[in-house]
Peptidase A1 domain-containing protein (Oryza brachyantha), 355 residues
Amino acid sequence: GAPGFHDYTVVVGYGTPAQQLPMGLTTGLGVSLVRCTPCGAGAPCDDLAFDPSRSYTFAPVPCGSPDCRSNCSSSASASWCPLTVPFLEGAVVRDVLTFTPSASVHDFTFGCVEGSSGGPAITPPSGAAGLLDLSRDSRSLASRLAGGTFSYCLPRSTTSHGFLAMGDDDVPQNRRGRVTAVAPLVDCPALRNHYVVELAAVNLGGRDLPIPPAAASATNATVLDTAISYTYLKPSAYALLRDAFRRDMARYPAAPAGGGGDLDTCYNFTGQPEVALPLINLRFGISGEILLLAPEQMLYQTEPNNFFSVACLAFAALPSDDAPVSMVMGTLAQSSMEVVHDVDGGKIAFIPGSC
């Protein structure tokens, strides 16, 4: 990724005996994906892979199983359930997943991906063997193990440690006393696997931005994403935020677009004695609870840990105002906060300064 960003992985065990594999995190895919054969020569990935032949609990998911979402027939010559993720080849299978020495899931369903699959696939982070699904789908680790509650904290730098906690026992109640904002979960049929909250307003420097109706879906749906770095708004909403931010930052010298070209509002703070930054607040739901983003959650810095360098507003535009969401909140805006998913309670809570 861009300088200053690093990939987030956790190590879990697949099979019996457990094969320890680093996995990237996804909160909306609907099924975990694991590379089951090494990549071919010259392929743009490493050789990390799960070997089904070394696990005596490994089993294919047959056609006709509730965990098989394909229209395959069990009478076909190959009765294994095929993987239906675009651009990937493989099968849907089951095995034991070991999250911690005391927490495991038997008959955990996941996609066994052929390592040679090409095309614009859903690619795991560098150094990971696949993607660990935490979505609302019944096949996800969150649904199988978490009992309705899980949380994560994404560290801002490589010198700090984050965590992934699953279930009520792993998410202590005493953390709830430090909650800064709570966002109610809302139903969004177009995004049934995702955790969706309602974005009521975006505030910059104490001023609510007049987000036009065209920029909002019926539910002002906002998705929290662990697979992208920046935060994306519908184009009409992003234009309002960008223009207001530029007006407030007019005293500072502009810099070329950064972040791989996605970020078009950049400044060179080199040599500045101080920087007056208008802060962004996000207001969620009808209760209007406010999440204040710290400068480090708002800005992408080309020199990590050096604020007085080139920095860009880490927000960008979605492809169209017709997108099914109003905002996709990426990892930078979520960094250093514990994000508690209380599915049974119908809410997501944010606890700043947790890692």
Remarks:
- The first strand starts at residue 9 and ends at 14.
- Residues 173-351 form a domain with the Cathepsin D, subunit A; domain 1 fold (CATH 2.40.70.10).
- The chain has four helices and 24 strands.
